[in-house]
TrEMBL record:
Main location as per UniProt: membrane
PANTHER family documented for this protein: ABC TRANSPORTER G FAMILY MEMBER 28, FI05267P
ABC transporter domain sequence ranges: 18-256
UniProt keyword annotations, A-Z: ATP-binding, Membrane, Nucleotide-binding, Transmembrane, Transmembrane helix, Transport
Name the UniProt record assigns to this protein: Putative ABCG protein
Source organism per UniProt: Chrysomela populi
Length: 629
C-alpha cells in the first residue's frame, strides 16, 4: 500500500519514456578498421516499468546502457527520444542517474552519513534537516538498510553496498535510473531482493533500466519488459515469460521445465544452431515489442513488502521545461560539504593518519641523526648542502606517493558522483586542495622542526621560517605533480611514472653545482628552469647559508675550505639568488601544476574537442605504428 505522506518533501518529477532508433556504435580498431558493437538497434523503455537488458557476455548490454545513460556519446549514431522528443543530453543528465557496476562508495563514513552528504548536496538547501532525515529514513527503509544505518560503508556486505549505491541516487527522486548489472556478485536471495526493490522503485513512476546476466525463471517474470541483445542486435523485446510462445511461434521450442532466460542465452550463443538473423528480423531489431506485461499481473511469488509511494507527478511534462538548475546547491555549499566529508574521512582513517605521522617522525629522526650537528660545522659544509637536498627529496617523494596510489581510485568515485550531478568538478577539486594542505602543513612541521634541531641549523626564527616555507611549497608542488599523473594514468602506471618523472627534476636541480654556471650547455640551462627542485634548493641554500658569520673550524681539522658560507654560496653559483624571487616562481609552478591537474581531471571526465582530437591522433598513430592489437 502506498504511504501517502512519504517522501513528501521531494521535488516532483515527470514520467520519462525513452525510445531509441537505429543506434549504432562502432569502435576503431587499429589497422583492422573498426568494430561494430551495436548494429542499428531500436527499442522503447516506458516509465513506471522495470526493464532488463539481457544477453550473453559481450553482447553489448553495458554499451547500450552507457549510451542510453549518456555516459558514452562518441562514435554513436542513431537517435534517442525522450517523451517523443530528441534527447537533449544536458537536460537528460539532470533527470537520470546511473549506478555503475563497480559499486564504489565513499569509505570511512557510516551509511547514514553517506546518505546525509548526498542529501545535503542533492536536495534544496532550504529543506530542514528533519525533512532530509525523514527522506533518508524512508529510503533506507525501502532498501532494507535501516539496520546498517550506523555501519561504516567499508563494513557493508556486497548486497548492502549495491543497495546503498541505489539509495544514494534515489535521494533526489530521479525519474530515470540506469543500473549496470546490479545483481552481479549477489547470492540468489540478495539478487531476488535487489530486483524486487528495483521493481518497487519503478512502480513509483520511474523508468528503471538495468542490465542483468541470466536471471532465474522466477525473476524473469518480475521484469515488466526484457530487451534481449545478441551480437549487438535486438532478438526479443517484450514481457519475459512471453519469450517462450514467441520462440515457439517461429519454430524454436523451449524444453519444458527449462528456465526460459537460460534457453534464450544458449540460443544467442548458437547452441541450437544459428537463429540470430531470423530472431532479429521477426522483432525488427527492436522496432516491435512482442508483448506487453498483462496489467493485472501480480507478483505474488516475490515478496515485495509494502509499496513505495509514488513520488512522481503522473502528468506528462516536457523535460526541457523542468527547473533548469544544474545543481541544487551553490558552489560554495558543495565546496563546504566536500571539505567536511574529506576531513571526516581523513580523521576516521586513523591507521593511515598515524602511519603518516610515524613516517615523518622516523624519517625526520633518521635524517637528523645522519646529519647530526653538521649545520654549524665548518668542515661539514658540503654534507650540510647534502642535508638540504635530502630534505627536498623527502618533500618531493613522500607527499607524492600516496596521491599516486589513491587518486586514480578516487577518480572512479568522483566520476560517478559528478556524472550523477552531485557537485561541480571545480568544487570537488578546490575542496581536495583545501582539505589536504592543512595536514601537509602539520606533517611538514613535525619533520622540519625535528631535522632543524638535530642537524644544528642556526636558531634564528627568520631562517627557520624560510626553510619551512620552501619545504612546504615543495611538498604541495609534488602533491600536485602526483595529481597530474594520477589524473591521466591508472594506479599501476602512475606508480611507475611518478617516481621516474621525479628523477629529471632532481638531476636538473643539482646539475653543474661546483663547476660554474657558465660551463653548463644552453639546452640544459633551459631545462633547469623547469625544475622546481632547483628553485627550492637555491631558496633553501640562500635562506640557510647567506649572510652567516664565518664558521669555526674544529680543532681536529687542519683546514676548512668552506668556513665562509657566503664564499660557498658563490662557488655554487648562487650568489645572485633572491629568496623571494624563487618563492614567487615556486608559487607560480604550484598554481600551474594545480591548474594542470584540474584540467587533466576535467578532460578525463568530460573531454573537450581538443582532447578528443588528441585522443584520435593518439589512436591513429598507435594503429599506424602497429601498437594496437
Ligand atoms: N572500446 C572498445 N574497444 C573494443 N571493443 C570494445 C570496446 N568497448 C566494448 N567493446 C566490445 O564490445 C562488446 C560488448 O561489450 P559490453 O561491455 O557492452 O558487453 P556486455 O554485454 O555488457 O558483456 P558482459 O556481460 O560480459 O559485461 C564486447 O565484445 C567488447 O569487447
Amino acid at each position: 500500500m502506498a504511504r501517502d505522506s512519504s517522501l513528501c518533501y521531494l521535488p516532483k518529477r515527470p514520467p520519462v519514456d525513452i525510445e531509441f532508433q537505429d543506434l549504432t556504435y562502432t569502435v576503431p580498431q587499429g589497422r583492422k578498421g573498426s568494430k561494430l558493437i551495436l548494429r542499428s538497434v531500436n527499442g522503447e523503455f516506458k516509465s513506471g516499468q522495470l526493464h532488463a537488458i539481457l544477453g550473453p557476455s559481450g553482447a553489448g548490454k553495458s554499451t547500450l546502457l552507457n549510451i542510453l545513460a549518456g555516459y558514452k556519446c562518441r562514435d554513436v549514431t542513431g537517435s534517442i527520444l525522450i517523451n517523443g522528443k530528441q534527447r537533449n543530453l544536458k537536460h537528460f543528465l539532470k533527470i537520470s542517474r546511473y549506478i555503475m557496476q563497480e559499486d564504489m562508495i565513499q569509505p570511512m563514513l557510516t551509511v547514514e552519513e553517506a546518505m546525509l552528504v548526498a542529501a545535503n548536496l542533492k536536495l534544496e538547501r532550504d529543506m530542514p534537516k528533519a525533512g532530509k532525515l525523514k527522506i533518508i529514513d524512508e529510503i533506507l527503509d525501502l532498501l532494507r538498510l535501516t539496520r546498517t544505518k550506523k555501519t561504516q560503508t567499508n563494513a557493508l556486505s556486497g548486497g548492502e553496498r549495491k543497495r546503498l549505491s541505489i539509495a544514494l541516487e534515489l535521494i533526489n527522486n530521479p525519474p530515470v535510473i540506469f543500473l549496470d548489472e546490479p545483481t552481479t556478485g549477489l547470492d540468489d536471495l540478495s539478487c531476488s531482493q535487489c530486483i524486487s526493490l528495483l521493481k518497487k522503485i519503478a512502480e513509483g513512476g520511474r523508468t528503471v533500466i538495468c542490465s542483468v546476466h541470466t536471471p532465474s525463471a522466477r525473476l524473469f517474470s518480475v521484469f515488466d519488459n526484457v530487451y534481449i541483445i545478441s551480437s549487438g542486435q535486438c532478438v526479443y523485446q517484450g514481457y519475459g515469460p512471453e519469450v517462450v510462445p514467441f520462440l515457439s511461434g517461429i519454430g524454436i521450442e523451449c524444453p519444458k521445465h527449462y528456465n526460459p532466460a537460460d534457453f534464450v542465452m544458449e540460443l544467442c550463443c548458437n547452441e541450437y544452431g544459428d537463429h540470430q538473423d531470423r530472431l532479429v528480423s521477426v522483432i525488427d531489431n527492436g522496432k516491435r515489442a512482442y508483448s506487453q506485461k498483462p496489467k493485472e499481473e501480480t507478483l505474488c511469488d516475490v515478496n515485495l513488502g509494502s509499496g513505495i509511494a509514488s513520488i512522481t507527478e503522473h502528468v506528462p511534462m516536457e523535460i526541457n521545461t523542468m527547473k533548469s538548475v544544474e545543481y541544487e546547491t551553490s558552489w560554495i555549499r558543495q565546496f563546504y560539504i566536500l571539505v567536511m566529508r574529506m576531513w571526516l574521512q581523513m580523521w576516521r582513517d586513523k591507521c593511515y593518519l598515524m602511519l603518516r605521522v610515524v613516517i615523518y617522525i622516523v624519517v625526520g629522526a633518521m635524517v637528523g641523526t645522519i646529519y647530526l650537528d653538521m649545520g654549524q660545522d665548518a668542515s661539514k659544509t658540503i654534507f650540510n648542502f647534502g642535508f638540504y637536498f635530502c630534505c627536498l627529496i623527502f618533500f618531493m617523494y613522500i607527499p607524492m606517493m600516496p596521491v599516486l596510489l589513491q587518486f586514480p581510485k578516487e577518480i572512479q568515485l568522483v566520476k560517478r558522483e559528478h556524472f550523477n550531478k552531485w557537485y561541480r568538478l571545480s568544487a570537488y577539486f578546490s575542496a581536495l586542495t583545501v582539505s589536504t594542505i592543512p595536514i601537509q602543513i602539520i606533517l611538514g612541521s613535525i619533520f622540519v622542526i625535528l631535522v632543524y634541531i638535530l642537524t644544528g641549523q642556526p636558531l634564528e626564527i627568520q631562517r627557520l621560517v624560510m626553510f619551512y616555507v620552501v619545504c612546504i611549497i615543495t611538498s604541495v608542488i609534488s602533491e600536485s605533480l602526483g595529481l597530474m599523473i594520477g589524473s591521466i594514468l591508472n594506479i599501476v602506471n602512475a606508480m611507475f611514472v611518478g617516481p621516474v618523472a621525479a628523477v629529471p627534476f632532481m638531476l636538473l636541480a643539482v646539475y653543474g653545482f661546483g663547476s660554474g654556471y657558465d660551463t653548463i650547455p644552453t639546452l640544459i640551462k633551459v631545462a633547469m628552469y623547469f625544475s622546481y627542485l632547483r628553485y627550492s634548493l637555491e631558496a633553501l641554500i640562500h635562506a640557510m647559508l647567506k649572510d652567516r658569520e664565518k664558521l669555526v673550524c674544529p680543532e681536529t681539522e687542519e683546514y676548512c675550505l668552506y668556513n665562509d658560507l657566503d664564499y660557498f654560496v658563490r662557488e655554487m653559483g648562487m650568489g645572485n639568488i633572491i629568496y623571494w624571487h624563487n618563492i614567487l616562481v615556486l608559487v607560480f609552478i604550484f598554481l600551474v601544476f594545480r591548474g594542470g591537474s584540474y584540467y587533466l581531471l576535467r578532460q578525463r571526465l568530460m573531454p573537450n574537442r581538443t582532447s578528443l582530437a588528441i585522443q584520435y591522433i593518439g589512436r591513429f598513430v598507435k594503429s599506424h605504428m602497429g601498437l594496437t592489437r
